[in-house]
Amino acid sequence: MEKDQLFTRRRMLLGSAAVLGAAGAGGVLMSGGGDRAARTTAGLAGPQARQALKPSEFRLQPLIGSGSPRTAPGKLKVRHQPILRLSGKGRNMMLTFDDGPHPDYTPHILDTLAKYDVRAMFFVCGEMAVDNKELLARMAEEGHVVGNHTWSHPLLTELARRDIRDEIESTSDVIEDAYGDRPQWFRAPYGAWNRATFQLGAEMGMEPMAWTVDTTDWMTPGTSTVVERVEHGAAPGVVILSHDAGGDRTQSVRAIREYLPYLLDHGYHLTVPPRRMT
């Protein structure tokens, strides 16, 4: 309970100002600055993802790319701002969930995604993942992409470089063990980034991803408010931030059951980033 309250207090202080903003056109994934967009490969190849749900041509639009995945990512450019949104043609959007996996909430979110044949992205915390590895395995089997959200959800800007590395690296180890691949994407807790975070993430082969629209479900504002924020914020390229742990996420579970069919009915393609990059 104390940890959940700490999450809420810090989020209310930091808000979403650290990462919100519009990005220019071009590329596939756009950062808030002038950094070159991340290059992509084939959608969701990988040792466990071969058994993933069959993509719906209408609902799932893998990002650009073709060919077989490499066994390890190439050296990444160190960014100065995180990626904020998708880019390119079409009505692509992405759903992301932070802080899990949680045995009481994540399965229900996965069930809803499976019902509509949609994939999403989960930024997991190592201390949650280590006790719920079966949920990471399910994410791999159903074609979802798993990113790194540190081990214990600390404010990284207050940590020494070695401690930041430990938080990220230990989480990547758990993800690889349970999911089948090391993560290619990283999200800083509270959206709080600094130079060391960008550098270490790149060294470990991960691109920094933020979000465009915060549902504020971490404040438990009510299911209708979460739904409204998603539906009103829906637009080509938008990355939605929600949570499947870190507190009572009943509202998040209920909300996705309402807004997901709405997005699909309005012609949005819910996509995920590639598992590997060239």
From TrEMBL:
Domain (NodB homology): residue spans on this chain: 91-271
Gene Ontology MF terms in the entry: hydrolase activity, acting on carbon-nitrogen (but not peptide) bonds; metal ion binding
Gene3D superfamilies named among the record's database cross-references: Glycoside hydrolase/deacetylase
Alphabetized UniProt keyword annotations: Hydrolase, Metal-binding
GO cellular component: membrane
Top-level taxon: Bacteria
GO BP term, example: carbohydrate metabolic process
Record carries keyword Hydrolase: yes
Transmembrane segments annotated in the record for this chain: none
The protein's name in its UniProt record: Polysaccharide deacetylase family protein
The species this protein was found in: Streptomyces griseoluteus
